[in-house]
Structure formats: C-alpha cells, structure tokens
Specification:
23% strand; 7 helices; two-stranded antiparallel ribbon; GCC-box Binding Domain; 215 residues; three-stranded antiparallel sheet; alpha+beta; Homing Intron 3 (I-Ppo) Encoded Endonuclease, Chain A
C-alpha cells in the first residue's frame, strides 16, 4: 500500500481522526490501472461509504481531504479514472457541479445541460421551466409526480377519460394530454362536468382526439 500523506486538518473537516483513516487502508485494493478499489460498503451508485459517529461519508472524499489537507466542501470530486469505487486521491479532481456535469457525458444531468432538456427528456421551454432555490426544475416532471401521487392516493376512480378524484380537495380533477404532456384543467364538484371540460379542451387543442367521453 503506498503511503498516505494524511493531514490532521482535513481529518478534522470530515470528523475523522488519523487512526480512523489509517484503518480504512485495509479496505483498499490497488488494481492494475492505479485505482485504489474500495472493498467496503458502497451506495447504490457504486461510491464507497464509511461510517463515523452514526453518520455516513463518501470514502473517496475522506481519502482526498485527508491526503491533501484541502476542504472540498461544496464541490464535487470528479473521478478522472471513471471508476466510482476508486478512492485514489490522484484520480480525483475537485470541480464545481457545473464543471462536473460538463465532463461527465454519461450522466443524465449532462444531457440536460447539453440538450436543454430535463433528465426525462422534457424541453426546458419558458412555459415548462420553474426556478426553485436558484435551480431550474421541469414543470412537466413536477406535474407527473403530482399526478402519480394523486392516482396512488385516490380511493374513487372515474370511468371518464382524464378525470380523477382529488382526495384532499374532495373534488374531481380534470386534465387532458397534448403531445405527451398533461394540462391541468381544474377541480369540479360534478364528475360529469370535469369530463365535459376534458372533452372541450381536447377538441380545441388536438386535431383528431381519439379519447373523448362524448357526454
């Protein structure tokens, strides 16, 4: 095992002592390409995890900060070796989130930046963009999540197309689909009224609507 240039300041940043980091060496295996392969616990994405005081930390961040004595809080550590399980600090480069996305073509976030779409392929048009906490969000995805939650919590189903029972509002929700996107049409006391609104809007927006209630 090559020597680690541990720095006590960096160990303090991550709430790790020098003895803690020394212990982590036993969970590293050096492979042919120079990667220090993490053999311990990993998260679903393949990144190494270490536990300290009932908290989980990313193993590669611990190794980098303890080796170079640099606090990289608020920055991503890019694996230049493209091996998420590698904890070799020489294979890690601190980058901003925007820089990290730009050099990681395999990520869904890269596609969102490169093609101006969300990770589900919805375009970031002015109408489909929401800004929350300084970050760009997809309006369609937010609506899809709301609709899924609505459907899963619904106790009453409707035989009408585009009509769902909103349990919280205790009213019928109406919506129609146009070009793969859903348009929310409001809440209605009567189920038939919600279905009627669905049909009228569909006739206006869709050239040949195939799913109508025809009341």
């Amino acid at each position: 095992m090559p020597p680690f240039g541990y720095d006590r300041r960096a160990a303090y940043f991550m709430q790790f002592t020098i003895s803690d980091v020394d212990r982590l060496q036993k969970k590293v295996q050096i492979i042919d390409n120079g990667c220090w392969q993490w053999l311990g616990m990993k998260d679903p994405k393949g990144y190494g995890r270490v536990r300290r005081n009932k908290k989980l930390f990313q193993a590669h961040r611990v190794m980098y900060m303890a080796t170079y004595g640099i606090d990289v809080a608020g920055k991503d550590l890019h694996h230049t070796c493209e091996n998420k399980s590698c904890v070799n600090p020489r294979h890690l480069r601190p980058l901003t989130r925007k820089q990290h996305i730009a050099v990681t073509p395999a990520s869904s976030a890269y596609s969102a930046v490169a093609f101006n779409k969300c990770i589900h392929g919805h375009p970031y048009t002015e109408a489909n963009t929401i800004w929350e906490g300084g970050r760009r969000r997809c309006r369609q995805c937010k609506h899809d999540r709301w609709l899924e939650a609505l459907k899963s919590s619904a106790k009453i189903t409707s035989p009408y197309q585009g009509v769902y029972w909103n349990r919280m509002a205790k009213k019928w929700s109406s919506e129609c689909g146009v070009d793969g996107q859903f348009i929310y049409l409001g809440l209605y006391i009567e189920e038939q009224e919600a279905a009627y609104v669905h049909d009228q809007v569909s006739l206006q927006l869709i050239e040949h609507p195939s799913l109508l209630n025809i009341l």
